[in-house]
Design a protein that fits this description.
The chain is an all-alpha fold. The protein contains 10 helices and no strands. Helix 1 packs antiparallel against helix 2, helix 3 runs antiparallel to helix 4 and helix 3 packs across helix 8.
Length: 307
């Protein structure tokens, strides 16, 4: 059943409010796990920040402009600072796996040692970040968060507005797919943009899964596509690190470069099928047409959102 016609178990805005509070909780709790150097702790805390930022952008005019802009600015700052540390983890962890699969894993041991030192240095930068007043303010957000964000204070948008916002994020995903119609012919930049749009759509569907029985299946389909696109991007990050000026003079074994290329090709071979399936699932659920252009905001929605 299409999203517009579905019977929801609660107002969509109420499901969004619950989701936002969950992400704030993960953002706040993540620091302790990072300090303990738990596996994926940096990834998990950064992901909470990315989900929050994505949903704020998706909700757009349903939120107070000044509050939305200020919070997105702080999340941009946080995600950027965390991004360097996460990329360092990606390089270290993938190098370890790739080297382990080589006939002579010791051939690239010098690279793994360099990557390990780099990852720990970036993690210490994150430790220092937690003492920054901007981080303290960001993790002191009120809960529940949404009532302070809605354009009309303490009056959540109706379901129609929420559906229109999801339709727009879906249309942006379709546009990105049009620019990367074939994974083998698309550039790395185009595929990375498509990944971001797929993740935005996934987070949009996640926000209302507590209210919509079909949303979890759509989320799972989008997650599969985003994971393959992420596997590809990880190989791009590893190769960029190997080629960076800081590693000048360090020679990567040809077997390692071949393993990176093989991993990249493996992801490329499966991306088109996964993305097409995710788009079909999204369109079936949302009621969108696969060829739909970016929708214009309706006059009725504008009137309902007017301050």
């Amino acid at each position: 059943m299409a999203l517009r016609d579905a019977h929801h178990t609660m107002p969509l805005a109420a499901a969004v409010e619950r989701y936002l509070d969950e992400q704030v909780g993960l953002l706040v709790a993540g620091a302790a796990a990072v300090r303990r150097r738990e596996a994926d702790a940096i990834h998990d805390q950064r992901a909470a920040g990315r989900r929050l930022r994505s949903v704020l952008r998706t909700l757009g005019p349903a939120l107070r402009p000044s509050r939305r802009t200020a919070l997105i600015t702080e999340l941009d700052w946080f995600n950027s600072r965390m991004g360097s540390a996460r990329d360092a983890e990606v390089v270290r962890d993938h190098l370890a796996l790739l080297l382990h699969g080589l006939d002579d894993p010791g051939a690239g041991r010098h690279l793994l040692e360099r990557a390990t030192v780099h990852a720990e240095a970036e993690a210490r930068q994150v430790d220092a970040l937690y003492n920054d007043p901007r981080y303290t303010a960001l993790t002191s957000l009120p809960t529940p968060l949404a009532p302070s964000l809605w354009r009309h204070p303490h009056r959540a948008p109706d379901d129609q507005i929420m559906i229109e916002r999801l339709t727009r994020v879906g249309a942006r995903m379709l546009t990105a797919r049009g620019r990367a119609e074939s994974a083998h012919r698309a550039t790395d930049v185009e595929l990375h943009r498509l990944r971001r749009r797929v993740k935005d759509a996934r987070y949009g569907a996640e926000t209302i899964r507590a209210a919509d029985a079909e949303a979890p299946a759509v989320v799972a389909s989008l997650r599969k596509a985003a994971t393959l696109l992420g596997d590809l991007q990880d190989m791009v990050v590893v190769r960029q690190w190997l080629d960076s000026p800081g590693n000048a003079g360090l020679t990567a074994p040809q077997a390692l470069l071949a393993a990176i290329a093989e991993r990249r090709d493996s992801a490329l071979a499966r991306i088109d099928t996964a993305v097409n399936s995710a788009l079909e699932d999204w369109c079936s659920w949302s009621g969108m047409d696969l060829q739909a252009p970016l929708p214009r905001q309706s006059t009725g929605a504008t009137e309902r959102m007017a301050p």
